[in-house]
Amino acid sequence: MQFTFSDIETQRFGVRAARCDDFRAGDWHELAARIAEHDCRLVTVRCDAAELSAAQTIVAHGGNLMDTVVTMEAVQLDTAVSRLPAADGLVRVGGEGDAEVIDLLAREAFSDYVNHYRADPRLDEQAVTDAMAEWTVSFARPTSHQAILLGHDASAVQAFAAMKVSGDTAEGVLHGVSRQGRGRGWYKGLLIAGMRWGEERDCKRMTVTTQLHNLTTQRTMAGLGMRICGARYTFHLWL
């Protein structure tokens, strides 16, 4: 398992918050020790959907299921990119000067997006929006390993894709489209731009994670040759 603290969640939600990824049933005693050592009050726990014993272990210790997500991947990016259509609209890398625009767009995009934060009735709705916006804006400081791609037309920025590199994988971490821009192909365009961004950094694959019920997004990714490569449960453990 991987245990990390979340400064953004701690500040926004007002409790000592942490995350535990890749949890397995045999990890419970180690997780409990880390929680006690660091006085955590909220832990977001994720486990592979195939690890039912891990999910049952978290539930047995008071965890509540908050969402189920699937991860889709594009493999052999160097070959895949050569077959991609041209992206509709204009895409550029955002910078610190775009922070205010990104903040406003993220707040709009995530205001009605149901994820594990929004599904938890103990979390304040405004605090959830604030945390999602702050997380998105943090990508406006581009480096060789992270960036935020902005899709824009002549009038305004309409969409974003927050990207990062992990090993040989480009990860589409966060995506959002303005209400005005929905239904106009911005999400597809940013997926294409994200694959090209990853290929330029010698990544072999790109992954994007989305909610299980978000079928429209999954169809868009499938239309670009992406395929499901995994699924995870997300639990909130309050202590």
Task: Annotate the secondary structure layout.
Elements: E1 2-5, H1 7-13, E2 17-21, H2 28-38, E3 42-48, H3 52-60, E4 64-75, H4 77-82, E5 90-93, H5 99-110, H6 125-137, E6 146-152, E7 157-166, E8 169-177, H7 186-200, E9 205-211, H8 215-223, E10 227-238
Describe the structure.
With 239 residues, this protein is an alpha+beta fold. It has 2 domains: 2-68, no CATH class; 71-230, 3-Layer(aba) Sandwich (Aminopeptidase). 34% of the residues lie in helices and 32% in strands. It has helices spanning 7-13, 28-38, 52-60, 77-82, 99-110, 125-137, 186-200, 215-223; strands at residues 2-5, 17-21, 42-48, 64-75, 90-93, 146-152, 157-166, 169-177, 205-211, 227-238. A 10-stranded mixed β-sheet has the order 1-2-3-10-4-9-8-7-6-5. α1 (7-13) runs antiparallel to α6 (125-137) and α5 packs across α6. The radius of gyration is 18 Å and the shape is globular.
